[in-house]
């Protein structure tokens, strides 16, 4: 029987799945309006960072008080992994096919198994091996193309999605492993990591000032709303993954696939091929079985 205490972290993870299943579309709209993916990511997560500073003022005190090298190392890994997952997700979605990008991202249960074993010392049972077989099999089926030889990602967007999925799994496992880091600090790390990874690219592209000059009031309003939403969702998701087993969190995030499949079909007319559906079935099956790995 589910209690309110159990339902809260589940609701937190599901809210993240809902938002991330839809957020690709406003980023594409902004890109069509002349706002690059890197700039949109920087501003959205920069706004989320500012919101977090106001909402979670004790974060700076916690950061300043950190003296233990191990504590700092786990925090740095969380900042990097969350930043890489978020930035990679946005970049992949801007150019790639929504569902193919998401399915590559959702090979995360495979990475979660390996990372949970090494970082959380969670033993692997027979379901773990089944998840590995299903995940790899789904990827092979979806990516198989006789013209390209090996079943590998076929473009830059798909490679980025694969890397982002690994980073997402790493952030999920690290968040659960780093119980000594507060929920507020974990939430703040999501925006901080994304800004830290995006800013160098913006500087390399010529700096932020020239790009900001081209922003319209409407575009900035959209960015402001997205930043506020992501700040709230980051807190909800970090609460969820901190209080749930890593693979149960991964299972709940599958709701994102349903939202993305429906929205990509309705909004941009993307449809999956039979080969993609077969690969998707195996990958989703792997995620469903992942909840039994440590049962």
Given helix and strand content, the structural type is mainly alpha
Characterize the overall form.
globular
Helix content: over 70%
Low-confidence stretches: none
Mean pLDDT: 82
Proportion of residues in extended strands: under 5%
Number of helices: 15
Rg over CA atoms: 19 Å
User: How many angstroms does the end-to-end distance come to?
Assistant: 17 Å
Short description:
With 295 residues, this protein is mainly alpha-helical.
Per-chain topology:
Elements: H1 4-22, H2 24-32, H3 37-55, H4 59-65, H5 69-95, H6 98-105, H7 108-119, H8 126-143, H9 156-177, H10 183-204, H11 208-213, H12 217-243, H13 246-252, H14 255-268, H15 274-290
Helix pairs in contact: 1-12, 1-14, 3-10, 3-12, 5-9, 5-10, 6-9, 6-14, 7-9, 7-13, 8-15, 9-12, 10-12, 13-15
Describe the protein.
The chain is mainly alpha-helical. Helix content is 79%, strand content 0%. It has 15 helices and no strands. Helix 5 runs antiparallel to helix 9 and helix 9 (156-177) crosses helix 12. The chain is globular.
